[in-house]
Amino acid sequence: MNTPSTLRFLLVLGALLLVVSVASAGGWNLVTLKDFPDFAVAGKPLNVAFKVWVPSEEPLRGLRPIVNATDERGRVIKVKAEADAAVGEFTATLIFPEPGDWVITIDAEYPRAATMPTLKVIAPGTPQLAPLSLATRGRRLFTAKGCNGCHLHEEVQGRIYGPDLTGKHFPPEYLRKFLADPSITPVPEMICNKDWSYCGSPYAMPSLNLKNAEIEALVAFINEK
């Protein structure tokens, strides 16, 4: 076997081993939230709407997801999500009993298929919190929109089914267009992270129907120096 063929074989083998290791760890789902607020109010219902994907461009249907919220003291809320089969979306309504820092996790096909950034819950009547910076909101959206389900970034725990975005900088106008319509860029045959410890064949990125404000926040985070 010549050297290029050997290298290609090892890359493909590495990709297969990566997929096997993920399956052995309990499986993998990509979860994308429709909206993720900067904060929530105790006692006020918060609708958590989301889609569940596998590495494809079609959201999964027929699931019975559970949305969990846990605070720093270990108190847990569990709510069964209702399905809207027409759009492949699920919704659960959370009511946080007390202020504090809460972490939302979602059980889909697999337990803890997604873990959201910490959500600050404030008491009713508390003055509105100062708005988050654009890059900070983008960092939270990187998880809430499921970007970390495929991409690595040093500031966010993630997986590599798409390019490693750590330290990358893209022309802002191109990045805005790509996030609005990922199909404008062909899918590469093989991608690896910076130290070549992970390689594999990437999947096509689904269109997430991002709002303009969400796109601007993600551009600010991805291009942040």
Blueprint (SSEs and pairs):
Blueprint: H1 3-24, E1 30-33, E2 39-41, E3 46-53, E4 66-71, E5 76-80, E6 82-84, E7 89-94, E8 100-107, E9 114-115, E10 119-122, H2 134-144, H3 172-180, E11 191-192, E12 199-200, H4 212-222
Parallel strand pairs: 2-10
Antiparallel strand pairs: 1-3, 3-7, 4-5, 4-8, 6-7, 8-9, 8-10, 11-12
Helix pairs in contact: 2-4, 3-4
Can you put this structure into words, describing what you see?
By secondary structure, this protein is α+β, with helices and mostly antiparallel strands. The chain has two domains: 93 residues, Macroglobulin (MG2) domain (Immunoglobulin-like, Sandwich), CATH 2.60.40.1930; 90 residues, Cytochrome Bc1 Complex, Chain D, domain 2. 24% of the residues lie in helices and 24% in strands. The strands form three sheets. Strands 2, 4, 5, 8, 9 and 10 form a six-stranded mixed sheet that branches. It has a four-stranded antiparallel sheet with strand order 1-3-7-6, with no helix packed on it. A two-stranded antiparallel sheet has the order 11-12. Helix 2 crosses helix 4 and helix 3 crosses helix 4. The protein is globular. The protein starts with a helix and ends with a helix.
